[in-house]
Amino acid sequence: MIELRGEPLAGRRAGRVGARLDEPRRLTRSLLPRPHYDPESFGRLSERIARFLGTARFLVYMTVFIVVWLAWNSLGPPGLRFDPYPFIFLTLMLSVQASFAAPLILLAQNRQDYRDRVQYEQDRARNERTIADTEYLTREIAGLRLAVSEVATRDFLRSELERMLKELNGERGGARPDGAPAPRGEGVPRR
């Protein structure tokens, strides 16, 4: 079956995933049109609301609102009081506010979890690249150390040249390299 962006082509044509071409499509009609909205903009709005609900400013505004409501309906003019003592309407409004705030906060938390998951995956990939780079550099340094250990150093060359000079001058055991004894004064190096 041909796939397009992880979705079977037959399902894409039929309007649903997993639909088969040899089965007729079920037509579902609703009496009311379905609302269309952009999930990303709705998510951003819910995050803004959730951020505002978690601030001290919101608590101050809510406290002032409730105090004014209670003062107006307790101490205000008797003819203009619209929510008497048990304050049923205030309770209803606070319940509605809480019932909308809870899902918006959950939606914002879900979006944050998704962002954290993406960030975690990016950090893990970056750490894997860093480990691979570190291992590569470690191998390169080890190779350089091996190569440097085979290179003749200045001290090694100096000692070898001095040894050869001694051999040429006959200081090695008092004899020349050809086996003949060294003549007098020839074994002393010249300066």
TrEMBL record:
Q: Where is this region: Disordered?
A: 168-191
Q: Where are the transmembrane segments?
A: 52-72, 84-107
UniProt xrefs under InterPro entries? DUF1003
Q: Which UniProt keywords apply?
A: Membrane, Transmembrane, Transmembrane helix
Q: Classify the source by domain of life.
A: Bacteria
Task: Supply the name of the protein.
Answer: DUF1003 domain-containing protein
Instruction: State the organism named in the record.
Output: Actinomadura miaoliensis
